[in-house]
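Chapter summary example.
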Amino acid sequence: MSPDVPPRRQLILAISCLSMFITALDNSIVNLALPDIQHDLHASVSSLQWIADAYTMVLATLLLTAGATADRWGRRRVFLTGLTVFTLASVLCGLAPSGGWLIAFRALQAVGGAMLNPIAMSIISTTFPEPALRARAFGVWSSVYGASMAAGPLVGGLLVGTVGWRSIFWVNVPVGVLAIVLTLTFIPESRAERARRLDPVGQVLVMVLLLPLTYAVIEAPGIGWTAPRILVCLGAATLGLLGLLGYESRRTEPLIDLRFFRSVPFSGATLTAVAAFISLGGFLFISNLYLQEARGFSALRSSLYLLPMAAMTLVFAPVSGRIAGARGTRTPLLLAGAALMLSALMLTGLGSTTPDWWVLVAFGLFGVGFGLVNAPITATAVAGMPRSQAGVASAIASTSRFVGQELGVAVIGSVVAAGLHGRSAAVALDTASRAGWWIIVGGGAVVTVLSVAATTPWAKGTAARVAGRLDLAEAPAPDPAPAAVAVAAAPDPAAREKG
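The structure predicted for these 499 residues follows.
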């Protein structure tokens, strides 16, 4: 930020970014530790999927409710609660005696994490009401996210390779305690002028949809898609989806406003986020298993191989924002889809004898694609939305990111697990992972197609119509008599239209 911004406001921004840094770092760092966790806790591949997915799944289900809760009960209060829960859960993760306990503690971490990122964004919006300063503040926020992606592999490799996998959770503790102290000292309490109503039924229906669906996708390769419990889970997820569509469409202030999806840019942004983060979740899961199982690398050496991906993400994230500001979101999304597809295509033939330069180039290309895709998602989601609805639209887009990453680990991990069934991972991983890389190719193709479909004049017209309906729905009913007087007295057509 520039020196004309008061130091206290800059400090509040730094505290908000710190909370996002530790939650994003924890999400990326865990993938690097999965092979060591597997060996130490004798965990199966499906358990590894749950260790990675428990965090993103719970985060995705609670993100929207956490924002509404903070608006009503106080952002600082809920933010502090989230920091406390996240820090205590990190201690418990580091002490977990088994894979099952680690999964449970990861879910508890996500409960705290859900109270951090969306609320930190609200705190930033309140601290920087000026549009120009707010835009710059969110630019800093995006850069910190890229920095967490860049730091994750290196920090994870150093910690796992020297202290052990448990240290990746303990490192959150001093940072969390520092953030709690700074929050108590410097961040003032704030609430929304008009808090959205809580939607507990909608929250439960989201959980009924996501939890059994994730369980079915992860466990089905081992026990069969026709197993009774898998069929029950799929049936429950279907009922959850139908119930969510029916219930939310009748609420005045729903958890997920289904009217948003009539906007093609918004729907396109949501699907783009899901496709891109399916690719990210699958990439992180497969690449770490490949490097440490098929190649036999240590966690530290594996982290060095992942640095090109992280570095390119850090470099191209701000580039994407500048391109989107100058030329619109289509160009960075087209480039992102092409880079993701090319990277995954290069990795479909990955084997234990693949040259290092080939692996490094492919990983770097993935970082280029992921760096380019992230910023335009939010910009496309809120394009044409009324200002009062921009925060909700952004929150839904953020939720779709975590849903995509959860599905990426679940689906691609299950494909890999099915290929490894009954065979040594070190021997069979090359072949088993190929289907996963092809799924990532498909994710890049979806991003490419949607980059064009969601930015056509027709698509922008749908966004304008949805914005008009939302404005009309939120506008208070005027008093007929004063309105009639205003129309009669209006000296020009613009004033008459306003009246």
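To summarize the output: Residues 475-499 have pLDDT under 50 and may be disordered.
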